[in-house]
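re: ur question from the group chat, yeah i did fold both. here u go
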Amino acid sequence: MLKSKFLGCLIGSAVGDALGSSFEGSWVLEENRIEENFSGRWTDDTHMMIGVAESLIMNHGFDGNHMAQTFIKNYEQEPWRGYAYGPPQVFRWIRSGVDWSQAAKRLFGGAGSYGNGAAMRVAPVGVLYYDDLEQLRSVAYGQSQITHAHELGKEGAALQAYAVALAVKADMSSQLEPYAFLKELKDFTINDVYRRKLETAERLLGEKDRLRVIKELGNGIEAHNSVPTAIYSFLHCPQSFEKSLFYAVSLGGDADTIGAMTGAISGAYVGIESVPERWKARLERRGYIEELAEKLWLIKRRLQ
């Protein structure tokens, strides 16, 4: 079952990215429209998630410089994946000799980015360190530091990784309790912005008005306006990967990233068998992503 959860997490993240990629920037969508344009082609969200996995596998853990160089190599091979302004600029600074841990601090007048780019790719950290919260937080922050150095960007990545970890540990044979899940996340986060967002998510459980959910949780590119939304989308229907993904993408906005994060959590909970075959069959580079997930699982087995 653990192997299935590792596979479900990485494939689920890529499927969510691909499902939402046609609707980035859209307004609220009818769920029955969402699958019409599904091609299986994913964006920079999955491209960078692959980079995180590749580097963790190569080093059997986190090496910041190696991960940064992996990101750069992958970007230079396929720069057309839909990268925002920030990461390529950081990559150029690192190429020019700036240390990997310092380059991202140059963005936005030295404040660093609090976008969701570090959270969208963090799924491999969540599965590899699902039972070691100290390492999970450290590595989530470390991989974030490469491109998203702001506190909100790093904490968003850690919170998303921990949501994945909780989903890995959760027993599928018993009903998942959304309030207990959110309490674990509130206890984990050290940031008041995220704690308030999770309290809002708790209050909104069962809410039928998607406009209210968007207004109070957000659907934007900022980590604090999308990570809690992805968690909420998973909890909208935790037993169904398909329903969680449709709901996440239906919220519009940064639909590919919210879809990717929701897919990572849901896939980590329900396992690879619960990801619809019609989506897996069309997913770009499915075999390679599954290979990365299996290698992470094998590393985890050796560490245990």
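okk and heres the other one u asked abt
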Amino acid sequence: MLTERQSMILKYIIDDYSKTGVPIGSKALAEQLPIHVSSATIRNEMAVLSHQNFIEKLHTSSGRVPSKEGYRFYVHNLGKVDLDEGTKNQVATIINKHRRNLNEMVHESCNMLSELTHLTSVALGNASDDTLQRISVVPLDDGRVTAIIITRQGHVENKVFQFSSDVEMEDLLSCVNVMNELLIGTPISEVAFHLERDVRPILTTQVKQHEELFNAFLEAFVKFASNSVYFSGKENILYQPEFNDVDKLRRLVSAFENSKVWKTLPLSSEDGIQINIGNETPLGTMNDVSVISASFKTGETSKGSISVIGPTRMPYEKVVALVEYITENIEKACLEDKQDEK
């Protein structure tokens, strides 16, 4: 158990390291503390913190840096930080602007998070109780077509198809008309099943290139029904000094490209804020990465989450406050819209 002074010293070590990335010594720390403590006393307290594995010494410096245990103690004893009115207004603007488009609301919130923290954010979604509202197509060129799939909750999926020259626009429109007639109101998780059972037999009799068209839309819906992953500010974390090492950088980039890695993040709306440090994160062996996550309900059984990914020395108080406030307001907007529909 740490004393009040030891806790204060640990907090200042972590806060300073999060800003500078440079180990801090007893003399510099004495100048920052709000109470008068001699350098010798601070060295004694730092020795205690070091013995209890809350801080550690780097070979390249006489100063100390937080250990993973120190970060864990720190994040579990964080005080509540209130956001400034300007940030709250930014969140309100995003929510009101994209009230009927959940995808845009979440994506722009992630963009805002990345800009304010200079870190990487990732959003996960699960639309288990969402239903199909409309399918439309927009011809491009050279046999390419953009299909736009819209759900009742405002999810939008754009998929570009490359069809063979044998596929005629008339057949494509007939295919879309059949799907709209039979599938509107169908839960997204069941669309693939109903495509096979209800739509395919009709396409077989009415559309020439029915197999190519059917397979294209089946693939799009299977992808849409799975949890989606959206990143913002991937490049931010790459500029952190912790990832100057080429091997670390390669592993990090590889993880960003593998969306399955991030689907292990929490999606339970009862979890509240979750802070994963080092090997607790989806990145496994990358010990100098932390992930802060919070979930939000979008319906009775549908949910999503937003996370911030950064080095272990990230500014936890600021990031926790932002993630918590943003997800709370997204959930509030979604549930209010659900109530208005009743």
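fwiw on the second one: The mean pLDDT is 84. The chain is about 50% helix and 20% strand. idk if thats what u expected
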